[in-house]
Amino acid sequence: MREIRIPAFAKVNLRLDVLGKRPDGYHELRTIFQTISLHDTLCFRPSRKPGIQLQIEGNEQLSAEAVEKNLVYRAVDALRSDLKIRLGVEILLIKRIPAGRGMGGGSSDAASALLGYLQFTRKRLDSSRLLAIASGLGADVPFFLLGGRALGVGKGDEIYPLPDIPRLSLAIVSPQNIHVPTPDAYRWLHAPELASLTKSAANRKLFQFCALCWSVQGTALSNDFEAAVFRHHPRLARIRRVLLQRGASEALLAGSGSAVFGVFPSPAKARRAVVGFPNDQTFVCESISRARYARIMKIASVVV
To answer: pLDDT by residue (tens digit) across 107-164?
Structure first.
């Protein structure tokens, strides 16, 4: 077996609507995912030791946790069990996507672990089986098997490809010392019960969302978490305001937070904008189309 390196790209939610709470305790979502060029890296190497050897660089907190809890470990372990593989593997995860900032780093790592390990072992897997394994790892993981621009419904794990939009230049600000646990964001949101979907206001929201999905003309950013999260962390609202003042056409909270991103006319203007955040972690990146994502990830080589 040869060494395999594969990126794990971050995402932003161009739109995130929380429609209500479901009978199973999860929330009913409508979201538009978009992959972006910011990424972690996974390296796979043969090992003389049995099992999975996982090393993490770039995130001290993740490095200190038991590797068995990591989504990369769990993804590869699931594939090894499914494919009945016993040979050992060394995995190096190089983190660059900030954890807990709403950009899907853990979910992307899991999906790339699935795709990368299949390439490493020269195995192929039925797409439905691969999606089932991905869904079992986390609601966002199936999206990262597709990439580009996609619609997420249900818990966000039902994924449907959407037409790609023109390339976006993004500036992302990941603020120091502000972490928004997803359960807290949902609690702050006070989402209505699922029965409210029958009301005319909810129906209008669904119609607006459907119209946006069909469009390839613009982003029309929207996030239901934003107002609630901004009330608890006013600095995030200030970051959004500064990005707009520095030339962003639109700016939005990333997922349930705490990163905030802005859409800029060019990479140069995005780079100038992040200079105004010297005490925060910042990134300048671009959106990635589904076709480009598939080429980079070599999805066709492992999915049947």
So the answer is: 999 999 999 999 999 999 999 999 999 999 999 999 999 999 999 999 888 999 999 9
255 and 294 belong to one structural domain: no
Same domain assignment for residues 29 and 128 = yes
**Helix, strand, or coil here: 29?**
strand
Residues tagged active-site: 11, 140
The CATH number assigned to the domain holding 100 equals 3.30.230.10
Rounded to whole angstroms, the Cα distance separating 143 from 35 reads: 9
CA-wise closest residue to 240 among 255, 250, 228: 250
Establish whether the linkage from the previous residue to 258 is cis, with ω within 30° of 0: yes
Q: What's the total number of domains in the chain?
A: 2
Residue 211 C-alpha from the chain's centroid: 23
Model confidence pLDDT, tens digit, residues 73-123 = 999 999 999 999 989 999 999 999 999 899 999 999 999 999 999 999 999
| Same structural domain, 106 and 8 | yes
Question: What's the CA dihedral at 65, 91, 174, 283 to 10 degrees?
Answer: 170
My answer on whether 148 and 119 are in the same domain is yes
> Domain of 228: which CATH number?
3.30.70.890
Please give the pLDDT value at position 103: 96
Domain range enclosing 255: 169-286
CB neighbours of 197 closer than 8 A, spacing ≥ 6?
19, 20, 28, 203, 206
Look at residue 197 in the predicted model and tell me its pLDDT. Answer: 44
What's the rounded Cα separation, in Å, for the pair 299 and 288?
15
Q: What angle do CA 172, 223, 141 make, to 5 degrees?
A: 75
Query: pTM value?
Result: 0.90
CB atoms within 10 A of CB 143: 27
